């Protein structure tokens, strides 16, 4: 199965807000019009639609066994992570694309097999010579997922019958305890 990693320009990728900045913006779909006006975005623009979808996802109820939280700042993300994992030393993992070319999407071949663990770091070699240190995560219990979830159709499995693993794009973060 071909795997494609979108190549994002770090200089144009939005950065995380500080707690002070995020606390000044209401994080609610009922306040979307106000937020769009505050940051000068047109209703119906691609950015506005992305914000609407994000807020909708963040307001969904957590499924049993899931912790659902949408961080609005780096500090709030760390607060939640430490609340779950305790006051341990943390390490942030991200997918890292090396040797960026002008090609936005490239097909990659993975050099090692995934292990049956929750978070795995894998290396991929791109068709243009790019190398990706890819982060893969596995959802070990999918029994409470919607049976129509796209992962089940792609993998040909049923909820709860198999872990579902996927790669994270370069702008996602996974926190793990660090020795």
TrEMBL record:
Domain BURP, chain residue ranges per copy: 1-178
Per the record, the domain of life is Eukaryota
In Swiss-Prot or TrEMBL terms, this protein is called: BURP domain-containing protein
Species the sequence originates in = Helianthus annuus
